[in-house]
Amino acid sequence: MTEERYEESQLYKIRHSAAHVMAEAMLERFPEAKIAIGPPIEDGFYYDFDLPAAVTDADIKWVEKRMKKIISGRHEFSMRAITADEARDLFRDQPYKLELIDDLVNGRLDDNGAPIADPTDRLTIYTQNKFTDLCRGPHVANTKDINPKAVSVTLRPPAGAYWRGDEKRPQLTRVYGTAWRTPEELADYRQRLEEAVKRDHRVLGEKLDLFIIDSMVGKGLPLWLPEGATLRDTLERWLRAIQIERGYLPVVTPHLGNIELYKTSGHYPYYADSQYSPIDVDGDEFMLRPMNCPHHCRIYSSQPRSYRDLPLRYAEFGTVYRYEQSGELRGLTRVRGFTVDDAHLFVRPDQLLDEFKGVVNLIQHVFGALGMADFRARIGTRDPDSDKYVGDNALWEEATVAIIAACDELGLDYHIEPGEAAFYGPKLDFIVRDVLKREWQLGTVQVDYNLPQRFDLEYVDKDNERKRPVMIHRAPFGSLERFIGILIEHFAGAFPPWLAPTQAIIIPIRESHNDYASEVETLLKSRGMRVKADLQDRNMRSKIRQHRRMNIPWLLIVGDRDAANRTVSVRLRSDEDLGAMPLEAFADAAAAKINSHVQEIGF
RNA sequence: GCCACCAUAGCUCAAUUGGCAGAGCGCCUGUUUUGUAAACAGGUUGUUCUGGGUUCGAGUCCCAGUGGUGGCUCCA
Asked: Start-end ranges of CATH 3.30.930.10 in chain A?
């Protein structure tokens, strides 16, 4: 469902109206509360309040009960147009509403002072039962259009939210609710939330022994366990091979650098909020690197370059360290140390468009190979009124035009968002949503005229003139950590065989089959498969159960018949029992599934 | 960082108004030798996150800290 249709839908009106009902109930519970705004959102609605005290579970339960009562009262939603002065009088005790009225009267401005709505003196208010709100609507006609059994405000806990999204302004209490057309839809929604928890990469990461985050090591610093490290290594090797095919050159650089490097690059101080404090080394200051590009620039400038050398594509799985506010850390998707599948392309201006397209094509290939079709492409341009950017306007303009041209030529479905650029240049980002519908930036391509200038990078052109190359920063995964976090949720922990940390487990039926199980293990390992014979002293059924829970693609049961006939009895993680297969046939069939990178595991 | 909530065994969770800290799974030992999602028996598992306070007595109440969760802000 598109946003526009949602905003015109009955469900939108139901949620918007439920928000008003919630505000009415909250004001009964907290008569001295000040009300702010209460819009519908995806899957529900919220309303922000300035409360005299923290809201408790008991308050929320009371409010939900009271809402159902109000809804059942069959109150009309009546709209009335009023003047600004009337509105100011009506909401004289509501400072947030007064601010909204002033904005409406003066014409609304965005954060940069640009008008986004014309000034008006015609305001509308909506009233239901004993509650009146400044609101442009639309609403349902009557509370009877809301099903009281399809409304809940207890599913999501209340949260702090800054007035108008501004950290420097008062923090209000945001109470979340959800409303649906029918109780069945509400039940479905609850079900979806429960399913989302099961897919959550933090839950699966623990269940599948992929990674841990240990408080003694530190917040936001994940530790990769053998199974997770195997998955990560598989992805790295895959991408590395693709990149070598496409003419990338490997480089390796250290995680620390002299502060002069970052002063030259401009990261220091532009990146100050995200950097860790400098480290004293024999009187010089060093920094944990927040980015890999400065190191790569120095590799470029380590020797003279001819136009014939370009493009140069330096690739490195480079680990970077960035300070993130503690409240922002989350599993693998937001961490303080992460590895960028980074590459920097040093290109001649005449190569920029093709190289940019090549990179986008690579990213599309990576996403496509993993079946990740549900992403959006965002061109981040600079916010014309902010001073947080470096480099001159003409170069920014040139880079922006190049990105848009490349996306147009590729037929990429993108949208442009001002203010989303990197500080050194505009970029194209690939954004996906996790199970809880939060958006995360994964792949990114950035055009940069600035760093070549700051590092005084040059090449000698055909005409024997020294010229400046253009840089493209790019990372198809974005970061290994975030990408794998999303990948875990994408596959719900059931990885395609080529990615599965353990591809098959061999389970002997009796202890007397251990030798044959080991033989099978050895043979499959010699074919490059990640397999293990489970020779624990436990019964077969409990082993099946244990490995089944770990989403191992293939369970190979071996008993007398298998040992005699050199077969394995194949059980899929989908619980299909394929029966006995000649060992060689299984090895070949499994290899075919692995090499073709398919999700399908049946033969 | 801010607001709110949460923290009991390796895991999932229980413990009445403040009154002896428990269960299942796991783990260990023994028995069992099993043909497709938990064999049987016995045993083991605790700084109830940390530090203070109130109380005759605190897992439970209060304060502070740490960690986690949801959201906000940020995400170059």
From this structure: 228-490
